[in-house]
């Protein structure tokens, strides 16, 4: 039933949907060629299996409407874009659930990174780890100037390492040396710092959403053929690298997460979060 509804209909009845099926995202259309996908999984928009699957399927629905040229990814929580992977998915999981979870993350990355749509990440709040992955998978990033916010890859702080494709994405975004420094220190960058290293493209004092819509409309005016060919040229290599190693990557991830030492680290990290 849900899959037969067009994206436009989805956006016109978000309340009806949320009362029947929890979609975890809201889709709206500020102009005829622009869609907005708002992450809506309180409290922190962490990426569970269901959340990742929902984002991926909504991107595919939006993509299937030829009128839509640009997609803004944002959050219903003004303080948090996304807290990254749902850490509870990695705490004492079954191997089956863990591998399905990781496949949903791989698939979300591949879908967002290689979509024909021009993608704008509208970062109003914190964006650590998987949140930074979502933003880096977009074509353009605008962030609130708020100096208290952080964006970056903090995996080492959890005693884990980013997978090779996330490391490669970071290297492609900020350059080798900065990526090596940022990854090994698990650094979360302030908006000013992120702008300096090219992790975000613009920081905004006022309404960051309005700037995101403006940028989305600018992208929508560029001929689609040129955009798609350029994205394929710039992004194809990383997409092919991961597509060729899906099973290997699932194996590494599940083996690493299921190790007792990793489990103890994850438990400790979860405790420290809930004690705050
Ligand atoms: C080839 C492969 C080989 C090996 C690969 C191995 C490993 C790969 C690893 C994969 C990569 C992982 C990337 C990730 O995304 S891991 C997640 C990292 N995220 C974080 O560290 C963020 C943690 N959260 C925070 O810092 C703060 O919550 C935040 C700043 C976002 C918001 O702060 P605020 O004060 O507003 O809220 P809190 O009180 O902290 O949180 C509210 C409740 O939400 C819970 N919470 C927070 N973050 C998460 C999360 N990521 N997952 C699940 N739950 C989360 C938090 O515990 C609070 O819960 P309650 O106490 O209210 O129950």
Task: Provide structural commentary.
The protein has helices spanning 7-12, 14-20, 49-63, 95-114, 130-136, 164-174, 176-185, 191-197, 208-220, 224-243, 246-258, 260-275, and strands at residues 25-31, 34-39, 70-75, 118-123, 127-128, 140-144, 151-152, 188-189, 202-204. It is α/β, with parallel strands linked by helices. It has one domain (7-275): 2-enoyl-CoA Hydratase, Chain A, domain 1 (Alpha-Beta Complex). The chain is globular and about 50 Å long. The termini are far apart. Bound molecules: ligand LDFHACXW. The site of ligand LDFHACXW has 30 residues, from helix 11 and helix 12. It catalyses: (3Z)-dodecenoyl-CoA = (2E)-dodecenoyl-CoA; (3Z)-octenoyl-CoA = (2E)-octenoyl-CoA; (3Z)-decenoyl-CoA = (2E)-decenoyl-CoA; (2E)-tetradecenoyl-CoA = (3Z)-tetradecenoyl-CoA.
Distance between the termini: 42 Å
Quickly give the CATH architecture: Alpha-Beta Complex
Major sheet attributes? 6 strands, mixed
- What's the overall geometry? globular
How many individual domains?
1
Strand content: 5-15%
Proportion of helical residues: 40-55%
CATH superfamily, called what? 2-enoyl-CoA Hydratase, Chain A, domain 1
**Count of alpha and pi helical runs:** 12
Question: Could you tell me the radius of gyration in angstroms?
Answer: 18 Å
Low-confidence segments, given as residue ranges, are: 1-20
Structural class of the helices, strands and pairings?
alpha/beta
Task: Give the rounded overall mean pLDDT.
Answer: 92
Bound molecules: ligand LDFHACXW
> What's the β-strand tally?
9
Subunit structure: Homotrimer.
Pathway: Lipid metabolism; fatty acid beta-oxidation
GO molecular function, one term: delta(3)-delta(2)-enoyl-CoA isomerase activity
InterPro entries: ClpP/crotonase-like_dom_sf, Enoyl-CoA_hyd/isom_CS, Enoyl-CoA_hydra/iso
């Amino acid at each position: 039933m849900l899959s037969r509804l067009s994206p436009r209909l989805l956006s016109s009845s978000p309340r009806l949907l949320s009362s029947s099926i929890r979609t975890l995202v809201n889709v709206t259309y500020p102009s005829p060629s622009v869609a907005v996908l708002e992450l809506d999984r309180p409290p922190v928009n962490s990426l569970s299996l269901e959340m990742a699957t929902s984002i991926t399927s909504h991107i595919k629905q939006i993509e299937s409407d030829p009128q839509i040229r640009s997609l803004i990814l944002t959050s219903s929580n003004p303080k948090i874009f996304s807290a990254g992977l749902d850490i509870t998915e990695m705490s004492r999981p079954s191997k089956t659930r863990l591998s399905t979870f990781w496949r949903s993350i791989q698939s979300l990355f591949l879908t967002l990174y290689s979509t024909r749509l021009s993608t704008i990440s509208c970062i109003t709040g914190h964006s650590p780890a998987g949140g930074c992955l979502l933003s880096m998978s977009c074509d353009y990033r605008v962030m609130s100037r708020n100096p208290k916010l952080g964006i970056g890859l903090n995996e080492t702080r959890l005693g884990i390492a980013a997978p090779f494709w996330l490391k490669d994405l970071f290297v492609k975004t900020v350059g080798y040396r900065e990526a090596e420094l940022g990854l090994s220190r698990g650094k979360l960058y302030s908006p000013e710092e992120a702008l300096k290293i090219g992790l975000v493209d613009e920081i905004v004092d006022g309404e960051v959403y309005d700037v995101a819509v403006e940028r989305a409309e600018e992208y929508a005016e560029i001929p689609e053929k040129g955009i798609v060919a350029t994205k394929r040229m710039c992004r194809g290599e990383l997409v092919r690298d991961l597509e060729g190693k899906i099973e290997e990557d699932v194996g590494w991830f599940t083996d690493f997460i299921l190790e007792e030492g990793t489990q103890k680290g994850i438990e400790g990290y979860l405790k420290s979060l809930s004690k705050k």
